[in-house]
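Quick check before the chapter quiz. The format below is the same one you will see on the exam, so make sure you can read both the input and the output lines.
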Amino acid sequence: MKAIRLKAPASLDNLTVAEADKPTPGAHEILVKAAASSLNFHDYIVCVGGLPTPDGRIPMSDVAGEVVEIGSGVTEFAVGDKVMGTFFPQWLSGEPDTAITWGNIPGDSAEGYASEFVCNAETAFTHIPEGYSMDEAATLPCAALTAWNALFSEGNLQPGETVLVQGTGGVSIFALQFAKAAGARVIATSSKPEKMEKLKAMGADEVLNYKEDEKWGKTAAKLCTREGVDHVVEVGGPGTLAQSINACRPNGHIALIGILTGMAGEVPTAGLMQKQIRLKGITVGNREQQQDMVRGINAMGIKPVIDKRFALDQIAEAFRHQESQQHFGKICLTY
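Here is the expected output.
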């Protein structure tokens, strides 16, 4: 079967098309004919050498496809079922455990899903939402689940509350969609006029240009009736956290889910303490939460925003498009 391998030293130029053995499902495993994947920042970091991976690693953590063979003891899926993977295949429910969550990530600490067929335990997959295409489903396991948990599992979002989202990447767009579907008010940020118009068209109640307004956090707070926003989906990290704290109301909630501006930096702890803000780091979620999200999507009826699709062997080109930061929503690979 055809697969993409990341040769050492890791770089976008060293993503190569290779042949690999077609896997055979063992007990409690399913074999899936992969149809699509989607790009996440985590995948990009792997492919440019930002995380240690062995020579020849197959990248990509997201996948959607059709079950073509099942191993003995499989009870949840049948041949012909449409499925999508989970970001943490061994984190099924409950609280995270470092050994479980970080020891078997597809495309990182384990072989990924950039191949024609993928095989894993049946518990490493869930059903896809009703009426979803394969590329739409492939956008969900990382970005959508992160946004879902930021707002609902950890944030307990309520109708009428206000959510601040940053930029127009996959997590932020899903957070906007989930928040609006739940009856919340959304303030979004961007720096490009055309993207700001798209955010408004998607239902954002207010859109702030963070380059023209360096104190956009305080501006966002002034747009609220409760001294600030109730929830912030923080994707920037150290470069934007101070403004997120300024935007947040007393006793509000910041979901720290991204490091787009760096791995570390100064944190204005006085602001956190004065406002008694709850700051929670979130890394995707578990299988049970993904199943909850699928039920939520079925009820809400939302569909992902896909910016552009690339063939599997155009994976380097797809990552360069992501690198350019011109995209709005998700970028997909179709197999």
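If your answer matched, good. The mean pLDDT is 95.
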